[in-house]
Write a structure and sequence with these properties.
The complex is a heterodimer. By secondary structure, chain A is an alpha+beta fold. Chain A has helices spanning about 40-50, 185-195, 260-270, 285-325, and strands at about 5-10, 15-20, 55, 60-65, 70-75, 80-85, 85-90, 90-95, 100-105, 110-115, 120, 145-150, 160, 170-175, 195-205, 205-210, 225, 230-235, 240-245, 250, 255-260, 275-280. Chain A has 4 helices and 22 strands. Chain B folds into 2 domains: about 5-80, Gyrase A, domain 2 (2-Layer Sandwich); about 90-210, Cyclophilin-like (Cyclophilin, Beta Barrel), CATH 2.40.100.10. Chain B has helices at about 25-40, 65-75, 100-110, 115-120, and strands at about 5-10, 15-20, 45-50, 55-60, 90-95, 125-130, 135-140, 155-160, 160-165, 170, 175-180, 180-185, 205-210. In chain B, a hairpin with a 4-residue loop joins β1 (about 5-10) and β2 (about 15-20). Chain B starts with 5 loop residues before the first strand and ends with a strand. The chains are: A alpha+beta, B alpha+beta.
Chain lengths: ~325, ~220
């Protein structure tokens, strides 16, 4: 099978290799990791038929083709690619060959995804390539000087991907109350939905600090309880943090509300200083929204994958032909 | 306040069941028994359960099930979640009681360092829960005469294998980390070995004994 080698010439901070996440180990204190924006991540995978992608931060990435050729897909709001100085735009598929330089820059969003039409040869931990932030286990960070080896590589014709339906910056976010809303006064619970909150530069894969009115917990004596992606956790100073892919598995600070997953992902993509209005929804409504959202995502992801499916079919035929040729 | 079990929605894809609101041995045993019962026969659509001190979180796929259906399934199991359901393993952890704060902790407690060590060694501990970091097991309960508040000062870069105490808990750390707990000893036991298929020595519910080394 075809091999490709790509040299990482530069990579922004917090650039890591991720798969869909490491499930089933939170009871041992291992968070799931995986992408911050799972929809943009799944689009990159669908476009090239991959299981692993590089999660890019606002620092972008520069890759130099050292051997072979491999197709790639770039997704994520505002992220754009340039191949040997030729702009390819964002939400795009192309092929990088030995001797070429692929430059990706951020331009609005915080998290982009670069997936390849080939299997990156990266370490796994507990069956997953997802990079576990605290330990560095899994595939790990991508940083300057690393050589990325890919096996089973295919090239892909350049094409643009359909834009996601929810690319616009989110301003109204939906949350289910609690599970620890009982630790807040009625006044502070009213402030949660009645006043605006604002994204700040305090952000990483673990969480995003929100600026707004302080919401003071009435007590801080809760026994440590499990945390989920999208938890709105409030510390002893009344400061709220939206917890993301590398959140700790449990904690003793109360979570006043829990954002719907897709809304949390979209908030994580916002530049610092973006205003948010939080609206509460009941559990029943949240499930209905999640189901409608999943149907919408399936439709869009199948459009993203469509051209790849055709390409893969053609490639499959070529492989069979090649084998017959060899036997002759 | 009574009325356990209490069920709370956690976003669109998780449900939390609570059997109490404080760190309590009996409550935690029931949480872990419930967790064990669920593991034998996971309700449809439930993808992962995460036990804590007094609460158990159930992650589910909202395309398959919902909070109401999961609650229904868990309610049926709560009465069966009694001590004895969970098979408790015993783990023995060797410790050298030579931590940099052993003497300061003893002094603060008004005890001789030897008495602190004796009482810590005499304790039978259980893993109430794991969290915070991989393999980080909260052990309780510490002898009532050994309970100290966290220190105000946080010490950085505390190495893995440090035995620390605070409140009713003790922990053997599994990675380099900052801590405000009291460092009373060290252990060479491998609590976290990432290269193993099962990397963790301790699981929720395990009984733990400490034995002294080099005394």
């Amino acid at each position: 099978m075809a091999t490709a080698r790509l040299l990482v010439e530069a990579a922004g901070p917090l650039t890591t290799v991720q798969d869909a996440g490491r499930h089933g180990w939170m009871r041992f204190g291992v968070s799931r990791s995986g992408p911050v924006d799972s929809l943009a991540f799944r689009a990159a995978l669908a476009a090239v038929g991959a299981e692993v992608a590089i999660e890019l931060s606002i620092g972008g990435i520069v890759l130099a083709g050292r051997e072979g050729a491999v197709g790639f897909a770039l997704t994520g709001p505002g992220f754009v690619a340039e191949l040997d100085g030729v702009p390819l735009g964002g939400w795009t598929v192309g092929t990088v060959q030995a001797g070429q330089r692929l430059v990706v820059r951020a331009g609005g969003g915080n998290w982009g995804y670069l997936a390849f039409a080939g299997q990156p040869q990266v370490p796994r931990w507990l069956g997953s390539a997802a990079t576990h932030a605290a330990s560095g286990l899994g595939a790990g960070a991508a940083s300057a000087g690393q050589l990325l080896l890919l096996e089973g590589c295919r090239t892909l014709p350049g094409r643009g991907l359909p834009a996601p339906g929810d690319a616009a910056a989110i301003t109204r976010v939906r949350a289910v109350p609690g599970p620890q809303d009982r630790f807040f006064s009625d006044e502070d619970l009213a402030r949660l939905t009645g006043e605006a909150f604002c994204t700040t530069p305090g952000m990483d894969r673990m969480g995003l600090v929100l600026a707004g009115p302080p919401l003071m917990p009435t007590r801080l004596d809760m026994p440590s309880e499990p945390i989920v992606f999208g938890s709105l956790q409030v510390d002893g100073a009344g400061r709220m943090t939206l917890l993301l892919a590398d959140h700790q598995t449990s904690g003793g600070y109360p979570r006043i509300a829990t954002l719907l997953v897709r809304d949390a992902e979209r908030v994580a993509q916002l530049p610092a200083g973006s205003q948010l209005q939080i609206a509460l929804v009941g559990a029943h409504e949240a499930v209905a929204i999640a189901r409608a959202e999943a149907a919408r995502q399936r439709g869009w992801l199948s459009e993203v994958a469509a051209a790849e499916t055709l390409e893969a079919r053609l490639m499959g035929r070529n492989l069979i032909t090649a084998r017959v040729d060899m036997e002759e | 306040m009574s009325g356990w079990p209490l069920f709370r929605a956690v976003g669109e894809a998780a449900l939390q069941v609570e059997l109490g609101d404080r760190i309590d041995d009996a409550v935690n045993r029931r949480i872990l028994a419930l967790d064990a019962l669920l593991a034998r026969d996971l309700p449809a659509g439930v993808t992962e359960t995460v036990p804590a001190y007094a609460a158990l979180l159930l992650h589910f796929d909202p395309l398959v099930t919902d909070h109401g259906a999961v609650e229904q399934a868990v309610r049926g199991l709560v009465p069966k979640a009694v001590a004895g359901v969970l098979e408790e393993r015993e783990r023995v952890i060797p410790v050298r009681y030579d931590g940099p704060e052993l003497h300061a902790a003893a002094e603060r407690l008004g005890l001789a360092a030897e008495t602190l060590v004796e009482r810590h060694l005499a304790g039978l501990y259980r893993v109430y829960m794991c969290g915070f970091a991989p393999g980080y097991a909260y052990l309780g309960s510490l002898d009532e005469t050994l309970r100290l508040p966290r220190k105000l000062e946080i010490v950085r870069d505390v190495p893995a294998g440090t035995l620390i105490i605070a409140g009713a808990q003790c922990i053997v750390t599994t990675q380099t980390m900052p801590t405000g707990w009291w460092r009373i000893g060290r252990s060479d036991a491998t609590l976290f070995e990432p290269s193993l298929a099962m990397p963790f020595l301790l699981a929720p519910g395990d009984r733990v004994r400490f034995v002294a080394e080099g005394l």
